[in-house]
Amino acid sequence: MVETYKTTFTIKRLWWVLASSMIVMFGILLFFGREIYHKAPPIPVNFQSSDGSVLYTSENIKRGQNVWQSIGGMQQGSIWGHGSYLAPDWSADWLHREAEVLLADIVNENALNLSADNEFLKDIYAVALKKQMRTNTYAVDTGIVVVTPARANAIREVAAHYQGLFEGHDEFLDLR
User: Fold this and answer.
1) What is the C-alpha separation between 157 and 98, in angstroms, rounded?
2) Which residues, including other chains, have CB under 8 Å from residue 144's CB and lie 6 or more apart?
3) How far apart are CA 176 and CA 172, in angstroms?
4) Distance (Å, whole) CA 145 – CA 139
5) Residues 6 or more apart whose Cβ sits within 8 Å of residue 88
6) In degrees rounded to 5, what are phi and psi of residue 116?
């Protein structure tokens, strides 16, 4: 039995198993790393309202990413579920706040009361909100995302909230 063990697990064979395993593992890592890189979402050239006013440029987005990374943002919350699990998911918070502002705008635009017990109206508002939030307006050929003026207003309002939050204004200190 000892002789079988010595012939089965020779140093040369163990090195061969290690080397081939490493080649296969790193090959898989490189393949999926390449796939992730090539399938990353595009960064728009401009993010603008349908009236032509520019909300963000690709440079604003890249600068924001650099600032986020420089302050250790992943330790202060997650983006799209990646990062710290001890703090909020900022992307979910942004979308929730944006949806609330848009819903209020839809209600005000129709001059109706959302607090009424009219389930039909609430369903109509929910459909209008989903349409505004889920419509993909990214133009691949130009690299521009165009949003409605109401959504542009919601984006500006939520951006002001986050600017106050990260700058540490007094009214936001409880949220930090």
Assistant:
1) 8
2) 44, 45, 46, 47, 48, 138
3) 7
4) 6
5) 77, 78
6) -65, 155
- Report the interhelical angle of 149-167 vs 90-110 (nearest 10°): 140
Q: What is the pLDDT of residues 20-77, one digit of tens each?
A: 999 999 999 999 999 988 888 888 999 999 998 999 999 998 998 888 778 776 666 6
Note whether 45 and 144 are within 8 A (CB).
yes
Give the C-alpha separation, 97 to 129, whole Å: 12
Cα–Cα–Cα angle for 147, 149, 153, rounded to 5 degrees: 100
Report the run of H or E that residue 138 belongs to, with start and end.
strand 138-139
Cα–Cα nearest to 60, from 75, 76, 78, 43: 43
Q: Do 137 and 143 form a contact (C-beta atoms < 8 A)? A: no
Give 44: exposed, middle or buried? Use CB within 10 Å, 0-12, 13-18, 19+.
Answer: buried
- Beta-strand pair 138-139/82-83: unpaired
pTM of the model: 0.71
Tens digits of residue pLDDT in 98-127: 999 998 888 887 766 655 567 777 788 889
Could you tell me the maximum CA-CA distance found in the chain, to the nearest angstrom?
89
